[in-house]
Design a protein that fits this description.
single chain; 228 residues; alpha/beta; TIM Barrel; 8-stranded parallel barrel; 46% helix; 16% strand; globular
Length: 228
């Protein structure tokens, strides 16, 4: 479905802007930084604004009256909180005005192949709000990427996402990220695929789209738009 959609679309400014979750998840981010993030999102009409839980209320207020989504990062960087803590954080984010959750899959549980535990956790979370699940693909083997994507789809989430700001892949390794996107698309056919971390230019975006991404998470949204 998404491949067909992109083949029919011209990659112009409006189209690219509609895919970008404009992101600031820096622990040092101030209210002024987040307000600026929202102003930029409104100016370019980005898909969403992605922040940490402490700023969800502020973003919801700043974006009121727009169609831009309020997106919140939950349990970064590697998803180690208990399931009950994660559920509580997600419910609070919803109450604060979030439209979508970007939730980190427990990477330790992936490595120990605790798939049933992961599935149950994500099923509970996905009932709260539309959920994009971050699998930390840069830490995973190909088989783990595939399995994680399968679990995300089975859990009822809307999207598989590559990484947070802690992705071990550097910018020079975007080709590896593109490889992961193809695996994620294979493991979770029909779901949205979000590429994030180290995506800093229009050429990077085009590479991600070619590999199957349907959403782009980046703190470089303005720079990308200036690339046209």
């Amino acid at each position: 479905m998404f491949k067909t959609k992109f083949l029919l679309k011209k990659i112009d400014e409006k189209f690219v802007a509609s895919l970008i979750d404009h992101t600031n998840i820096e622990l040092s981010a101030t209210k002024a930084d987040i307000k600026k993030l929202c102003e930029e999102a409104i100016h370019y009409n980005f898909r969403g604004v992605d922040v940490r839980p402490k700023y969800v209320k502020l973003v919801a207020q700043e974006l009121k009256g727009t169609k831009i989504k309020v997106v919140v990062l939950i349990d970064a960087p590697i998803g180690l909180s208990s399931s009950s803590e994660r559920i509580k954080a997600c419910k609070k984010a919803k109450a604060d005005g979030a439209h979508e959750l970007d939730v980190v899959m427990n990477l330790v549980d992936i490595k120990y192949e605790k798939w049933n535990k992961i599935l149950k956790d994500l099923q509970g979370i996905s009932k709260i709000l539309p959920t994009k699940v971050i699998i930390g693909s840069g830490y995973l083997t190909d088989s783990e990427v595939l399995k994680a994507a399968e679990i995300v789809k089975k859990a009822g989430a809307i999207c598989v996402k590559t990484a947070t700001e802690k992705d071990p892949l550097e910018h020079r390794e975007l080709a590896e990220k593109a490889h992961h996107l193809k695996l994620m698309k294979q493991g979770a056919p029909g779901l949205e695929i979000k590429a994030s971390a180290r995506i800093g230019s229009l050429d990077d975006v085009k590479l991600m789209l070619k590999a199957g991404a349907t959403i782009i998470g980046t703190s470089s949204g303005v720079k990308i738009m200036k690339g046209f």
